[in-house]
Amino acid sequence: MTKTIRPLLAITLLAAVLTGCASGPKYAEVADAIPAIKPGQGRIYFMRSTSVFGGALQPEIQLNNHVVGKSQPGGFFFVDRPAGPYRAKTSTETVMALDFSLYPGEVKYVRTEAAFGLLLARIGFSLLDASIAEEELQDLSYTGRPIAPVTPVAPMAPAAAR
To answer: Per the record's keyword annotation, is RNA-binding included, yes or no (predicted)?
Structure first.
C-alpha cells in the first residue's frame, strides 16, 4: 500500500467502528410495547445486522419517496402502512431499490446490508422469511420513533360496586 492510502484506510476503519453501531433498547425490551397492526394496514420492519464493513454508511431509507428511517448497523425500526404496492430505496453512489406488495395484516421483514460499490459501499435490500428475521431481531437495537409504553388496563368494577 502506498503511504497516502494507509492513513486514509485507518481513518475510514476508525470512523466505521466509532459510528457503526446503533444504540437503543434491544428488541426484547420494546417488543411488548409494539402496537397491534390496525385493520387494513400491514407492518414493514427494516433491519440491519452489525458489520464493520460499511458501518459509517447510514443512508436514509425511503418508502414510496418518503423518508421513514435510516439504515443503521445493529438497528431496526418498523412502519405501518396501508395495504398496497411499495418501493423501498436508498441512495449512496447509486440508487438501490426493492419493490413489494403489502397486504392487510401482513408483516414484511426487509434487511438492509452494505455491499461493495465502485467508490463507496452500497446499501441493498432483501426480503427475509419471518423465522429468520425474528431470530435476527433479537440482537438488534430499536432505532425508530418512540413507542408509547403499554399500560395495563384495570378491569371494570362489577355493576353492583359502581
So the answer is: no
The residue range of the domain holding 86 is: 21-144
Q: Which residues contact 142 (CB under 8 A, 6 or more apart)?
A: 24, 25, 26, 27, 29, 30, 75, 76, 77
User: What is the CATH number for 62?
Assistant: 2.60.40
pTM: 0.76
For 126-143, the pLDDT digits (tens) are 999 999 999 999 999 999
Q: Is residue 79 part of a domain?
A: yes
- The answer to whether residue 105 sits within a structural domain is yes
Query: How far apart, in whole angstroms, are the C-alpha atoms of residue 63 and residue 81?
Result: 10
Give the integer Cα–Cα distance in Å for 55 and 21. 7
